[in-house]
Amino acid sequence: MTNTQVTHVQIDNYGPWTVTPEPRREVDLQTLQSRLYADLAQLFGNRDGYLFFSRFDNMVAVTNGLDRNDHARIQESVGNRYPVSMSLSVATADTPADALGTATERLQQAGSAQDEGRREVLKTDILPPEDRTPTDVQLAHFDVDDATGKYTDQLNEFDTFIQIEQGYATLMKYMRLAHDSLSFFVGGDNIIAVCSALDREDYRDAIDHVQESVGVELKVGVGRGRDAATAGMDAKHALEACRETGQPVTFADRS
Amino acid sequence: MTNTQVTHVQIDNYGPWTVTPEPRREVDLQTLQSRLYADLAQLFGNRDGYLFFSRFDNMVAVTNGLDRNDHARIQESVGNRYPVSMSLSVATADTPADALGTATERLQQAGSAQDEGRREVLKTDILPPEDRTPTDVQLAHFDVDDATGKYTDQLNEFDTFIQIEQGYATLMKYMRLAHDSLSFFVGGDNIIAVCSALDREDYRDAIDHVQESVGVELKVGVGRGRDAATAGMDAKHALEACRETGQPVTFADRS
Amino acid sequence: MTNTQVTHVQIDNYGPWTVTPEPRREVDLQTLQSRLYADLAQLFGNRDGYLFFSRFDNMVAVTNGLDRNDHARIQESVGNRYPVSMSLSVATADTPADALGTATERLQQAGSAQDEGRREVLKTDILPPEDRTPTDVQLAHFDVDDATGKYTDQLNEFDTFIQIEQGYATLMKYMRLAHDSLSFFVGGDNIIAVCSALDREDYRDAIDHVQESVGVELKVGVGRGRDAATAGMDAKHALEACRETGQPVTFADRS
Amino acid sequence: MTNTQVTHVQIDNYGPWTVTPEPRREVDLQTLQSRLYADLAQLFGNRDGYLFFSRFDNMVAVTNGLDRNDHARIQESVGNRYPVSMSLSVATADTPADALGTATERLQQAGSAQDEGRREVLKTDILPPEDRTPTDVQLAHFDVDDATGKYTDQLNEFDTFIQIEQGYATLMKYMRLAHDSLSFFVGGDNIIAVCSALDREDYRDAIDHVQESVGVELKVGVGRGRDAATAGMDAKHALEACRETGQPVTFADRS
After folding, report:
1. Cis peptide, bond prior to residue A21, ω within 30 of zero
2. Minimum distance, in Å, between the CA of residue C10 and any CA atom of chain D
3. Which residues of D touch B73 (CB under 8 A)?
4. Is A42 close to C47, i.e. CB distance below 8 A?
5. Most buried among A126, B190, D136, D235, using CB within 10 Å?
6. Is A4-131 in CATH node 3.40.640.10?
7. Are B32 and C80 a contacting pair at CB < 8 A?
8. What are phi and psi of D216, to 5 degrees?
C-alpha cells in the first residue's frame, strides 16, 4: 500500500487575469508561469516534495512530510512576489488519484477557479507524522528507449516531439485508468509517475500498452520512500540500472 | 503564403549531463529547465519572437526579424549564465514544418544531440529583410471551450488534465500531418499553432477532427503579421472575439 | 550573550572567470550575481536563515538552525544550476564578527579565492542543537528617518543615494569596530545589522555617531530569537513601533 | 562633451507596500528586489543599456538608444509579472548628473514616491536619433588594485567589505561633486561610473583622492561609445590593459 499526500495548486482566477483589461503579452505570461513553477519546485523541493507543472495554472505536488505551516509559508511567499495568488488543497489517500480527487473536490467546494472572490484558499488534510512509513510514496521514472538515436538525431524536432507526446498522452491516460496513478511529462523524453502500489507486472503492462498503441518503447525505474525526494532519486538510479542491464523495468533495492 | 523563420534550440549533450557523475536532483533539473525557458522566452520575446518549450531540452522558436547577431547574443547570454550550453539552427520556408525540418537537419549534420564535442553550434539561414512582408507569420491561438465550467470546476485536476492533454495530442499531430503546422501547449487550456497559410475551413476541419476523435471542443483566433509578436497578439484578440460571438473560428481583421 | 552561527559564502575563482577568455558582458554578470543572491536568499531563508549580498561574489549569512547537510544541499543546488561553484564556511561565536572571522580564516586556509583548484570547499562548525537558545541571534533593522520626505522627494536620485550610502558606510564601520556587529544595506533606506548582545545605549550611541558624522538620522528596531527569521521579523515590528511612537530605538517585547 | 540619456526607475509606493498590512518577510523582499533588478538589467541590457541597482527601490539606467516605446514595453513587462509597478523618467544632458537631475525632478512633479495614486508614470525626454554620436557615453570601470591579495585572502570578509565600501563611498561622492559623474558599485571590488567628458587627469585626481582619504588603491579603464554596452565593454578591455601594464588609468583606443 502507498500513502500519498498530494497538493493541488491552483492560481486564483488566472484565466480572466490574463485577458484583463486586454490580453497580456504571451511572452510575459510564459515567463510568469515558468518562473512560478520554478519557484514552487524549489519551495516544495527544499522540503523534499515534488511539484509537477501539468497545466501551469493548475499544478500537482507530492508533499509527504510537509505540514500546514509549510504550505502556508509557500502560499505567502508567492503572494509576496507575484501579481497573482494561489490556492492550495492537500489530501492523502491510498492512491494518488484518490488523494488528488479529494484535494480538488475541497477546492471546488470553496468556489470556482474563476471566482473573483475566492483567493488563497488553504485546505490541508495532512498525513499525521506518526502514520508515515518509509514506503509511503512510490515514484516511477520512465524514459523512451534510445530516444536520441531513434528520434532526436533522425527526425525533425517536431516529429520527434510528436512521438514523445503520443507516448506520454497514452501512458498518462492508461496509468490513471488502470492504476490510479498520475504521470507527468518532465522534459526531454522523461515521464515521472506518482503511483499506487504497483508491481513489476503492472509496469510491464503499461509499457506494453504504450508500445502497442503508439509504437513508443519505454523503460522505467521505480523507487519507494518516505517522501518524494527519496523515492524519486531511487527511481532515477533504478532507471540507470535499466540502461546498463537492458531490462525495461527495474525496482530500486529498497523499493 | 507564409514565410516563417524557425529556430531550433537544443541544449548540448543535456541527457548525459543530467546523470553525470550521478543523477542530479530532479528539483534542480526542473528549475534549470523552466528558468532557461523563461530566460529564452524573454530574450526571443524582446525581439518580437515567440519561443515554445516543447520538450525543454529542445525548444522551437518563431524568429522572423531576428538576425544572426541576435541569435549569437542569445547564445552567448545563456553560455554566461548556465552550466549548460545550447546550439541554435535557423531556417526559413513556406511552411513552419519545412522550416523546422531544414533547421533540425543542419543541426544533425553538425553532430548528435549527445555528442560531447558538439557545442554552441550556430547555423543561421536568415530571412533577408527585403523579403519580409506584413503577412509572413500566421499564428492561431486555440483554447478549450468553457474548460473551467466543463472540466476544472467539475473533475479532479488530473482528469481535467487528461482531457486537455488528449485534445492537445490529437491537434498537434493532425495539424502537423494535414497542415504542416506546429502546435504547442502553452498552459491552462491554451494551444498556440504556428501555421502555414490556412483558411477558415482548415481550422474548422482541425477543430472538427479533435471533437470527433476525443470529444474536446476547441475554438481558435487567428492572427497574421510580420513577426510572431504581432501575429500572436492579433490571434489573442481574435480569440476574445470568439468568446463574445460564439463563433469557433475568428480571423483578426488584418489577417 | 549572543551565539551567532555565520556562513561565509564565496564564489570560487569568480574574478578570473568574469574575464576569461575575455571580459563577459556586464549585463550577464549582473544577472548572474543577483539571481544567485536571490536563489541563495530563498535557500537559506526557507530554513529560517538570512543572507546578505554584501559584495555578491562574497556573501554572509546568519544560519542558526542549519546543519552541515543543509549547507551541502545548498551548495549542490547551486552547482547544478550555475556556471560557477561556491565554497561555504560556517562558524559560531559570541559575536558575529568573531564567527565570521573564524569562518573566513578556515576558508583562506583551504586556498585563495582565486585558486583554480579550490572548488566547493565545505567547512562546517555548526552550533550544536542542544546549545541553541531562544536568544542566540540579535538583529537590528535600521532605516533613515523620513527618507522619502527629506531625500527621495526632494533631491535627485543620486544625491539621495549619496546620503543613504554615507549613512551606511559610517554605520557599518562603526558597528564593526565599536560593537563587533555586521551591518548590511538591504535596499531603500534599510540596513540590517547582525549584532552581538547590544543594549539600548549601544544603539543610541551608534545612531548618534552617524548623525554627528554625516548628518543622517537613523532609527532602529531590535529583535532577538533562536534564528535569523524570528529575530528579523521581531526587529521589523519593533521598527514599526518606532514609526508610531517617534522613539529612535525600540526593542521587541521578547528581545 | 558627452550626451547621456539617463532613466530613473522608481518602484511605486514601495515602502508602504513592504509593511502592509504587516511587515513582509525579508527573504521575500530581497528575492523580489534582486529579481526585479536582474529582469530590468536584461530588459535594458538587451537594448544595449546599462542598469544599476543603487537602492533597488530606485535604480538608475543609461539608456542611449532606447526610445519611449522601449520604455513603455519594459514598464508593461514588469507590470505583468510583479506585484508592484514602477515609474520611469528619462532625460538627457551633457552630464549624467544633470540628466538624472531632470529625470528625477519630472518624476517628483508627478507625485511622491509614496503617493498611492501615482502609478506607472512614464516621462520620456529621449535623445533624438539624429543627435546621437559615437562618443555620447563615457563609462569608467574601476576596480581595487589586487583586492584578492590585499584583502579577500587576508582579512575576514567583513573587514574586506569595509575597505571596498569605504573606497566606494568616497569615490561615488567625489565623482559626483567634482565631476558630475554617477558611480555605482557592481559587486566584488568593481565600480562603474557614468561620466561626463573626463580626461586622464580627472581620473588620476579621483583615484588619488580615494587613496589619500581612505587608503584604497583603484585603477580604471575608460570606454566611450554610442551606447552604454559599447562604452562599457571598451572600459572592461581598457581595465584589462591596466592589469597588464600596471598603469592606473587606461583609455580604450577609440575613446
Report:
1. yes
2. 9
3. 46
4. no
5. D235
6. no
7. yes
8. -100, 125
Cβ atoms of C79 and C65 closer than 8 Å: no
Tell me the average pLDDT of chain A: 97
pLDDT class for A254, splitting at 50, 70, 90?
low
Over residues C16-61, the pLDDT tens digits come to 999 999 999 999 999 999 999 999 999 999 999 999 999 999 999 9
Asked whether the domain spanning D137-251 has the same topology as the one spanning D4-131, the reply is yes
Please tell me what DSSP assigns to residue C191: E
| Cα–Cα distance for residue pair D123/D129, rounded to 1 Å | 18
Amino acid at B177: L
Q: Is B237 exposed, middle or buried (0-12, 13-18, 19+ CB in 10 A)?
A: middle
Q: Which fold has domain D137-251?
A: Alpha-Beta Plaits (3.30.70)
Q: D230: Cβ–Cβ under 8 A, 6 or more apart, which residues?
A: D48, D137, D223
Q: What single-letter DSSP state applies at residue A238? A: H
Domain ranges of chain A: 4-131, 137-251
Give pLDDT, residue C1: 87
List residues bridging with C44 in a β-sheet: none
B127 vs B125: CA distance, rounded Å: 7
Neighbours of chain C (3+ CB pairs under 8 A): A, B, D
Measured CB to CB, residues of chain B less than 8 Å from chain C are 24-25, 27-29, 31-32, 35, 76-77, 79-83
Q: Which chains have 3 or more CB–CB distances shorter than 8 Å to chain D? A: A, B, C
CB contact under 8 A, D166 and C173: yes
Question: pLDDT, tens digit, for every residue of B50-82?
Answer: 999 999 999 999 999 999 999 999 999 999 999
Residues 6+ apart with CB under 8 A from D51: C27, C30, D9, D37, D40, D41, D44, D45, D59, D60, D61
Q: What is the mean pLDDT of each run of 10 residues along chain C (255 residues)?
A: 96 96 96 98 97 98 98 97 98 98 97 95 97 97 96 96 98 98 98 97 98 98 98 98 96 79
